[in-house]
Amino acid sequence: MDLTYRYGGAGALVALHDHHLREFLAIWRQADERRLELPASSEPEYASREALLAHVLGCAAGYLGWICRQLELPQPAIERPAPEHLAATADDVLERILEAWQTPLRSLTEERAYHPAHPSPWGPPYCIDAMLEHAVMHPIRHSHQLRRLMAAAEAGG
Question: Fewest Cβ atoms nearer than 10 Å: which of 2, 54, 97, 140?
Answer without folding.
Answer: 2
